[in-house]
Amino acid sequence: MTNEAEDIKVAGLRLATVQFVFTLGWTVYVVFLPDLLKRAGIEASWLPWLLMADQAIFALMDIAFGVMADRVGRVWQRLARGILWLTSVSAIAFVLLPLAGVSPELLLVITLLWVASASIVRAPTMVLLAKAARREQQASLVVWYSGGMALAMALSPFVGLWLKGVDPLLPFVVSAALLWLAVFALLRWRNANPATAAEALSPLPFGHYLPLLFGLALGAFGLQWHAFVNSAALYGKLTEAARVPWLMPWLWVGFAAAMPLAGNLGKRVGALNMAGAGLLLSAAAVWAASAVNAENSLILLQLLAGFGWGLAFASLMSYASSAGTQGAEGVFMGSFFAVTTLAAFARIMLASQWLPALAELRYLLPAVTLCLAGATVLWLARRLPGRT
Questions:
Q1: What's the CATH code of the domain at 277?
Q2: Sign of torsion over alpha carbons 344, 347, 350, 353
Q3: Helix (H, G, I), strand (E, B), or coil: what is residue 7?
Q4: What is the C-alpha separation between 131 and 337, in angstroms, rounded?
Q5: Of 9, 91, 168, 202, which residue is least crowded by CB atoms under 10 Å?
Q6: Which residues form the domain of 162?
């Protein structure tokens, strides 16, 4: 392995660690949020609305931080200092959350402060590395980013089980400290062979990029609906309730399994072609999952659904990263993450407010949206230029 390959591997591992810790920290927050609301005297009916507000803030901050990163430009130290400073604010706010139950107003203010500042470890960390990495290195960074997130998602159901009955202060403190350390380690990385202006392409016109965001929104909504609304119910039809949390990670195991293939296959067939194929595979698996009557068959389909989404997610992020090169990485990546967050907003809203009305379409809905997403991305593959 060359020194350059080793260098990007170190950066990727640190980036994966940041996303792994951040995603598990979100799990800690969601697990304890109902109890925090109860302590503060806030009705449980406000829980989905607070989660939707969190997603809306995340989306706004993803775009705002992306724009900020582009204005800072390629000055690594300035961007790194801003990320570390806001990560420190986020860590402090996260530790204060379990202590803020003395009043609803204080809890909401601390939550707002944490959500707004925590956005700094989403798009900006990827943008930071994308600005320093060479064009051929960016796909590898995307795989590391997605892999760290996938591993955390696979462990999230177990973390929820382990945290039952635990005093919330300890997991909040541990999560905040680990995230700060992970970000600090990431920011100490320096690329020995940074990108140069001569090798970079001009950014793709943002208007050409908008249809890709539309396809991403459809795909992210469909996969999230299947993963967080339908999967538990599908398993519940085939096994006892106590086993369901232990079966939920299979989807994310499939997601993680796609990461080693996403980069290499994307280079051979094109990122958008790979993304479209992955979305159609996920759509087919999600559609079939509602019809099987054997646990092993459902597990296999969950693996395939996750695998297809893993190929699509990594390929679309890779294209978004390269499409913003050079100088618009922040806007392109910030928009990418904002769209996935808005998909989560839509999923929470529909599941909490209109699930009974969607009963007949509940299992068909994600398959249709994933299929439309795949068709959209494959259509774009014929019209947008290759960037990798």
A1: 1.20.1250.20
A2: negative
A3: helix
A4: 17
A5: 202
A6: 3-199
